């Protein structure tokens, strides 16, 4: 049994991870931590867990953590995470980090969007955990930078095009996410009477997932890639649909596109190529990514749908863990 | 032109009143006030008013108020309102108060559910503004206690039965309200990812609208009335549906019930009797109350639907104002 | 491995059962059938199954069924089911029937609410599959009448009271169900622009789940029980919340109620007693029932929440199957 | 009083028009028609009109229509409309047509997306009723082609750029509409359990509003314009948000963009320029268009929000009527 701890277990990604581990046959939760004011019995912090999870969520105790866990899901926010990760690694734990702190290799870029980086050493060795595109490196990783939700949808949706040099290296991504993407803290925009029946754009021109996408897309294309990424939020709980507008370099038909994507992902359980536009609801609550590539007005348009909290966070983290520990990659995720 | 001021204009009932006055041909808004931290241009405080309302929302200045208004909509919370109303009345203004402070005549009951009452004098003269049931008194009122949203739905739904002595004086009310009933301040339960797709009961055994209902129902029945009132909240913006379970005193048929209700409300524009269960959505955004009385398993069940913010608050307040000023009762409300 | 067939697999209960079996370690789906016009690859009929279920949904072939399955989930509609069940039993298959056809023992009552019954013989031996209340009989059953969704919520919510003779044998149930309860066929009321932001009552005085509740409640109370059952539908996908209003026979406190319920269900994984009103969303997608009993205005009010398609249908069916085959009752359901 | 008839009054645009006329002080509804199977009392066909509209919806009788109306709102579907419009015009009635039949001047384009056109004569004289951009021509029009909902949002959002030659003549429009855009007939995708919590793209590469946009955008730019228009549908009732991605021809700042748009629309009541992303909910139920232009990654991105049924259909039709009859353009629409 793999012994799993979750640090920062009191948020939405935490509870999604907990629920996955309730069904995981090869791993078990041993330790849950959060800020003192968010601690308590797990099934009181999350009333949906009533009778299902006997653990407490406790303030972090490094000794306890070290003795109880083989791997740590670090669900801390950006900027906070890099204060903890070095200690976890020093203690010999494997770490899957949910924040952006270990995703962006270029310190200058990171620091422009976030803050000064205090752990360049581990950053250098962190492995970007987009399972389908980076599986070999994940196997031996000590520290996984679990990808952002938007980047997961966009990178899976464009990898076959970028790898094959089929599109210009500048494209537009119009994404919509469900409201769970905003996290669990109440705020004006996400107050139900404001958010319900609403839809709006945010992060115009500067969303922090943009450099993450550009970095990995650039690696896939082996060239600089520039992405105009525009997120929106819709009045639903879960899911991200990215509509990606690319300029093809050569003529390609709808049929060829679908074949290309099917071939590229032919061994992947969690990436499914459709021949029609994905229904976001079909991937809600699951670790699947549904992709439909099409030709429209001379451009290539790709629709890519995931659950932002599962394939976009906790599910992909478990998938990474499964790869790191050499067990069936789909365990707990079907 | 009736000159209208709104005190406490920065909440949901405030903006609903503002929107009604944008269409009112015999009254106009002259002054809007709120707590200092909620002031600003009306169309910035409420972005849906952009370009529609040139007023500012300002901190209250009594001199300005007195010189600008004939009638004040007092949209302050319970307990706060009675600190202001005496001054407004002393200044010669007519007042329509949205709080519970002037609804409950029995000080002991009020104080049990709220706090010590500091304005017993005006309380004694306040008129309960349930227009259809109390129109004559409203005409000459200086101070209207605008009814609560739940009581409006329940009292309109049972008045024909209570007035005609057709039901036992103890009944059960199962109500559901939309999330706007919780007001504009973000909170955990009303955070979109918690409230969306949710439904729950609250205020079990002790909701503060219970004594208000019992008082007026008792006046209608000319007897003590006891109501087990159980509110719930659903994942929609607007509306209240009350399902009211009564024990009839005599046999009555479905047809007779509908006839009784139709006769009782035959001159009322805003109360419509249906022959099928009301759709809550049909009254959303309107000042109408849709009622369907039926016989089920030997009991009388009444379904009564209103918009909690319109007929249950701002719409009824305007209707009261129209009555007080002798103009067409439906002005601004169709 | 238990081999499972689903007849009538093309509806909502069918796909929920399929999803459960994707995670079940001791049973596997071997055969799926539906009306010819609803057949096809399972992952095309249900696009959320894309890449997850390799089976076809085929027209029923009795020989194939008999050779492929040990147990049949019969997800056919009321009235249709009893045309198939006798053949299934004759072929030696165990049957878990989702319809009402084998739930109501009194033929006269069944025929009043449905139609002439054509299989009185098997009806006599059918076991009512409310797992927590009837486990011993389920173990040896050949034919399970899987309970209705509303009855499941109401019976679990009142069993401790009825069994202990604590309430009068006449009570009121006000329930709300999500829109999935209406099934998959488009209709006017459930057209999104009509249903969204809506809420309404239906089946006034005569819902078909009423006699089913009364029969089992009567067995629990060992007396006639009369239930005024009033369902409503809300604008959410999943879940039933029943608010049950009972007259207690003796004084009981909130604390005693909670203790009584906790004691009654102390060995039950899937029934959790709360000390606050259940959030419907907490049970959405799960096989759990959350119950909160309370005293209000001298009455006992019980709130009971389940997922209508899981504990109210497919989940409970799997729970029944697990009991029948002597495996861990929670397998596939955690 | 302007006397108004609505042909095809039984759909969503019909009832929205009816509700507007309930508040219109200078026009009144005199005649409502629909297909025979959709006729009945208006307040039974639309239960939200209960007690509010005394008219019947009747099968069309041309004599009656001619004697009762000055202007006809023709709410018939594409392809059907052009069978009626010539008769209406011949009878001397003014016509505001909601279909696409009179919007596209190029017969070849129309026929590619729809069918052979049977009324080229009137098409030649029809005036495109985008009020803010074509007011002078609307004043004297006999036949208005009321714009499509998507084109309204896109053309208002790009007109200041196109007219001033500030963007390349090829751009991308990513739009989302509420579910009311699909009309009132139940269908699989819009069945509540399918649509709720869902989001998806449709009409990929070929939506019929594309040529309409391109034609008018071309007139504004005085050049050919090519638009990749990609609509999506979200789980809400009302509203369209178009996110428009353009390549600027020259450098321009956020501030200059806002100034340009403010200047362009400075006399327009119903177009409001924001300095932040529009909230779709702010325009739901209103005739307003909220626009926010911004610079992002070297491109110009414009967000344009309207209510699809009001400014995108019935509200704009009333606005057109007000212009045609020389009355206050905002009457009934504030």
Layout of secondary structure:
Four copies of one chain form a homotetramer.
Chain A: E1 2-7, H1 12-22, E2 27-33, E3 40-41, H2 42-45, E4 56-58, H3 62-68, E5 71-74, H4 81-90, E6 94-97, H5 107-113, H6 120-125, E7 127-128, H7 131-139, E8 143-145, H8 149-163, E9 170-177, H9 192-195, E10 199-201, H10 209-221, E11 226-234, E12 240-246, H11 254-264, E13 271-273, H12 280-283, E14 289-296, E15 299-306, H13 310-324
Parallel strand pairs in A: 1-2, 1-5, 2-4, 5-6, 6-8, 7-8, 9-11, 13-14
Antiparallel strand pairs in A: 3-4, 9-12, 10-11, 12-15, 14-15
Helix pairs in contact in A: 1-13, 7-13, 8-10
What value does the average pLDDT of chain A take?
97
**Beta-strand fraction estimate of chain A:** 15-25%
* CATH topology annotation of the largest domain in chain A: Rossmann fold
> Number of helical runs of chain A?
13
Q: Indicate the CATH architecture of the largest domain in chain A.
A: 3-Layer(aba) Sandwich
CATH class assignment of the largest domain in chain A: Alpha Beta
> Could you state the CATH homologous superfamily of the largest domain in chain A?
NAD(P)-binding Rossmann-like Domain
Sheet with most strands: strand arrangement of chain A:
3-4-2-1-5-6-8-7
Instruction: Give helix and strand order of chain A, one letter per element, not per position.
Output: EHEEHEHEHEHHEHEHEHEHEEHEHEEH
Class from secondary-structure proportions of chain A: alpha/beta
The domain count of chain A comes to: 2
Shape of chain A: globular
Radius of gyration of chain A: 19 Å
User: Pair with the most extensive interface?
Assistant: B-C, 42 and 41 residues
**End-to-end Cα distance of chain A:** 19 Å
Total E-strand runs of chain A: 15
